[in-house]
Amino acid sequence: MGYYDDQDGQRRGKENRRGGGRFGYFLSGLIGVIVGALVVALLFPSIFGKTNPDSAAVDSNSVTNTNPSTPKTTKTVSLKVTTDITKAVEKTEKAVVGVSNIQKQSIWSDDMFGQDSKSSSSQEAGSGSGIIYKKVGDKAYVVTNYHVIEGANALEVTLSNGKKLSAKLVGSDKYTDLAVLQIDGSNVTTVSQFGDSDALKLGETVIAIGNPLGEEFAGSVTEGIVSGLNRTVPVDIDEDGTEDWQEEVIQTDAAINPGNSGGALVNIAGQVVGINSMKISNESVEGIGFSIPINSAKPVIHQLETKGKITRPALGVGIVNVSDIPAYQQKETLKLPANVTTGVVIGSVENGSPASKAGLKEFDVIYKLDDQKIDNIVELRKFLYEHKQPGDKVKVSVYRNGQPKTFTLTLGTASGSN
């Protein structure tokens, strides 16, 4: 049964029990020492020459000298980032400049006798951006927006390195909102490259470069996409409340702010595909900016550079939209058919003009040029400006006293009339 009845067996059993007890005490003590050492190691890792793993992750770039008398040193990591966007910006950024519109302003003050005196000084009235697109000899040429230079008595261009140069206005055109300036080219190191705006695709990456809010933020870069192609934006050029023109533009969500006007819209190859022009400024609208397509701008730029102005054809008449005429006058004065509610009314005819020579009269209502239907002033101008030149012939179809008539005339050169 495992029990011994003789004395020797009982003695051996007692000896064995005493020996087993001593071994058990030793084993228990050893386990206690090991557990205690593990607890200490976890609580005080530095005793064993180990580092907190979390601390090591945070300071992985730091090298610390264990000698307390030696100052700590930190290893600096330099990261050079090059992307398609940074390459595109580097290619064009130095060709984008600031344009300052300087105007004379009257200042009234009291003289020593208490009398009002008037003096004038030249001050910056506004600023925008421009693009250096050409350098010939010691001259360089800059394209910008017409509204950036409008009303200026003097113009100043600020290069990307901060150097300021006086600029000469070579030519400007309010309808296309473009102007060309000439500057000293000795300090010009970069000329932009024009791309193909007709090749742009919806969603394509584009970059706007310019001086939003003036020189303080010169050379700012914003990135976005082509949000819309073949857009038209109504423009009231003479600010009389009537739409004068439909400007063809590229829509983008790249941020365009005041001061960006005249700056570059660049594709991923660093080519200028648009000239930043305007944005929709409305609290409920976010990220709708517009640029003039470079393919539309190039012939205008060339003509402004070589001729100083854009030569456009004209009929020699003053006009108003039929839609702006009260319905009663449409019926009683113009005697238009009941189904005619659009067209362009001739309000005046210049003496000796093409219209006068052809026999057009006041209150004639133009509804067609050649075979193109004309509903308003914008359509009339776009047809003439985009399809005709001074000296070309055009057929003008009108309603006179409600009856259709057609006249053929030779177009003149536009001055202040159409």
Task: Give a short summary of the structure.
The protein is 22% helix and 37% strand. The chain is an alpha+beta fold and 418 residues long. It has a six-stranded antiparallel beta barrel. A six-stranded antiparallel β-barrel has the order 9-10-11-14-13-12.
Explained architecture:
The chain has eight helices and 22 strands. The protein is α+β, with helices and mostly antiparallel strands and 418 residues long. The protein has two domains: 83-104 and 122-310, Thrombin, subunit H (Beta Barrel); 313-413, Roll (Pdz3 Domain), CATH 2.30.42. The strands form five sheets. Strands 3-4-5-8-7-6 form a six-stranded antiparallel beta barrel. Strands 9-10-11-14-13-12 form a six-stranded antiparallel barrel. A hairpin with a 2-residue loop joins strand 4 and strand 5 (139-144). The radius of gyration is 41 Å and the shape is elongated. It starts with 6 loop residues before the first helix and ends in a 5-residue tail after the last strand. Mean pLDDT is 82; it is low at 1-20 and 50-64.
